[in-house]
What does this fold into?
Amino acid sequence: MSHALEVHADGTASFVSANGVDAWHRLGTVTRGALTAEEALEKAYLSGWNVRKIGDVRATEYTENGFTVIESPDDFFTVRTNPKTGITERLGTVGSKYEPVQNEAHAEMLNLLVDESGANFETAGSLHGGKQVFVTMKLPMGVQVGGFDRHDLYLSGLNSHDGNSAFRLLLSPTRIVCANTQAMALKDAEASYSIRHTVGAKGKIAEARKALDIVFAYRDAFEREAEKMINETLTLGAFEKVCEQIWGLTEPNPGKRMVENHRLRMNTLRNLFENAETQASIRGTRWAGYNAITEYLDHHAPAGKDAVKAAEARATRTLTTSSKATKEKQQAYDLLALAA
It folds into this structure.
């Protein structure tokens, strides 16, 4: 699976990253300082799209008896003005009630939500030829697990211009030392909020502001759950049992290759749990066990021999919620947290 970033004919990519941090795909623009909303949109080529609806959608069917024009009066095309060429491009097919949320409104919404809290725009980009857009802000408040294991919080706005999904706000904590995304099941907090693309969408921006409470609720829940895990010891033997529950050999007669792969995986996991610098401050805890497993999945699990495809596979594991790795992270969390 590729990065799906929009790459234009001149080779430039619709992506920007702040604070001098390169993305895994090495595409787009990297700045050395924080970004304003305007800078994020400009450098990621997200400005001036003028996403709009065009009516009178028609389809033509060709058969041996000739052709038939089928009209669909309730459907509309969404189109944009290409930021590089100025050409009008189709993005998707939507219903009559769909109302576009411009990229400028997207960024401004995040600005309004956080006000003057000190949050900075961190990344912005276009996916799948402009069908989807994301803008991310790094929030000034983070999470301190155990008083020393720091996690930043990022508020992301995810928008689609093709009618396939609502405008969504997503809160995500990230571990600085190894950039592991946490896939925790937090029972008492919601980590996302959606706004449908309808006439009332702009009005719901004010409503979404109230939903900023999700930031604090999620942060507090994340902190509570992680605190439980960091205060509980975990022996190597208990850690290995968790790993076996996730990746144990279940076939009655596993082949030599399967046995060898299992041995290599377990060796890597043991090393991460016992020796990795990323676990230095939390060594021997359930929190360290969880982070060792997520670090393995994000950075060490086999991803193929081709370097580019391997990088893309690892990014997919880290960034998508439907991947096998995300489910394995959730299983690891459930096994380690519920017993804590």
Residues 175-180 have pLDDT under 50 and may be disordered. The CA atoms of residues 51 and 80 lie 4 Å apart. The first strand starts at residue 15 and ends at 17.
